[in-house]
Amino acid sequence: MSQLLDNLVSLLALEKIEENLFRGRSEDLGFRQLFGGQVLGQALSAASQTVAPERKVHSVHGYFLRPGDASLPIVYQVESPRDGGSFTTRTVSAIQKGRAIFTLMASFHGEERGVSHQSPMPQVAGPEGLKNELEVCLENQHLLPEAVRESVLCAKPIEIRRVNGYNPFKPTRSEPVQYIWFRADGQLPDDDQLHRYLFAYASDFNLLSTAALPHGISSWSPHMQVASLDHAVWFHRPLRMDDWLLYAMDSPSASGARGLSRGLVYNRAGELVASVAQESLMRDRSQQDK
Hints:
This protein is of the alpha+beta class and 290 residues long.
């Protein structure tokens, strides 16, 4: 494992401070507030640590209630609504300054045989030869605000490569569809739950930008106020975060200062391993001033 990936695994591992009570540190990725994927991944990590290992998380639903502070730790309180014969349910509250900033409900299921089908994997270029996100940032570093330049222009534990070459620093109008390859930057242990909450962390990247594509805007547009409002993940099949995954995203709607984005995630063998949906705040401050 690379040092960066080791740090991310440590970030998501959490400190147990009491039964069903965990504490996680925060990291500053250069966004205007705490990165939602961090809270999502840590909350799922907290829930997973209270469930028997033979039951794997199959669905996650979370709501972002307040902006998080990247300079403060987060306390995660886990509750156990149900431990059934087939399914286990957990709810998690992420707390800063005595108030919930995020709430999550996760369901866990033991392995069962059943019918199987899936949507086919899109036929797109593989990750080989594509620029990664850091290379794009370095080419456009003169467009980055000075306050976030250092945190953005550094190597990351999750490598991202865009198939369609979208540049968030010079956004142009296009159809709301993106194809992105991503993987952890290093080899990970054979821990299925670890791969799933690492996936939850990474699944928050680029959904909002998909909804922004038809409008020629991005998270870096100075007049835009953007944030994740909710996030849902369904795990269909085992996945590995240390091998390339294809994130096929689209956005069917944006209205009322909100945008909806969806994603299907495939492994290199063409298996559909997860589905994701997210609604995001997309508030144009310039329109409010008129």
